[in-house]
Amino acid sequence: MIRRCEEHGCFRGEACPDCDQEGQFILDEEREDRLGRFIAGALRHFPAKLGLSMFEDGWVSINALTNAATRKYKWPKKYHIYALVESDVKGRYEISGGKIRAVYGHSIDVNLDYPLYEGEFAYYGVVPEEVDIILEEGILPVKQRYVHLSTTLEKAIEVGMIHSENPSIFKIDAAAAIDDGLNIMVANEDILLADEIPADYILEIYE
């Protein structure tokens, strides 16, 4: 569930993780899940189906999104959307100037405008059966607009374990790729986005 602490803002769970106060009730778990799924679909996969106009860089009017949510469920208010975004520890969405967009995970064609990565390496976790294909073809988007890379080995392992108990992790020379003109953007502290990663930039494989 989502609650709001007067001092620390919105959070998920029974008590504020910063001060252990119960806070004000905002959404129960069922409505949190329903609204979360609706927003994910609206901002990542099918905005036009919901009558939403999306800018090229993924932004949608938060008023229009609220109206679309209300048409479907009746109960959502704008503050529910703000609370869901503020309390999301994965940083999946951002709000600015009356607009909202998904930070990553798009299957629709968007052109995000995040800053280029300044780190040296990036990491990508896969099931072992995909290793040979990637070494031949490179890392390409699968059902998504961008390739999602990890900023650390630990995060790549965590992501890879969603699909395999023993994922293989590629270490990528991100600095060289960017120097050569590839677009590798910082979505948040854990996730990088790239159009593709040619196999030439794969440095090592951790099994």
UniProtKB/TrEMBL annotation:
Please identify the protein, giving its name as recorded: Probable RNA 2'-phosphotransferase
Range of residues in the leader sequence: none
Give the UniProt keywords, A-Z. NAD, Transferase
Q: Which GO terms are recorded in the biological process aspect for this UniProt protein?
A: tRNA splicing, via endonucleolytic cleavage and ligation
Task: Tell me yes or no: is NAD among this UniProt entry's keywords.
Answer: yes
NCBIfam families registered for this protein in UniProt? PRK00819.1-5
* Cited function: Removes the 2'-phosphate from RNA via an intermediate in which the phosphate is ADP-ribosylated by NAD followed by a presumed transesterification to release the RNA and generate ADP-ribose 1''-2''-cyclic phosphate (APPR>P). May function as an ADP-ribosylase.
Q: Give GO MF terms, alphabetically.
A: NAD+ poly-ADP-ribosyltransferase activity; tRNA 2'-phosphotransferase activity
Q: What is its EC number?
A: 2.7.1.-
The cross-references to InterPro entries, in alphabetical order and at most eight, read: Ptrans_KptA/Tpt1, RNA_2'-PTrans_C, RNA_2'-PTrans_KptA, RNA_2'-PTrans_N
Family annotation (SUPFAM superfamilies):
ADP-ribosylation
Q: Does the keyword NAD apply?
A: yes
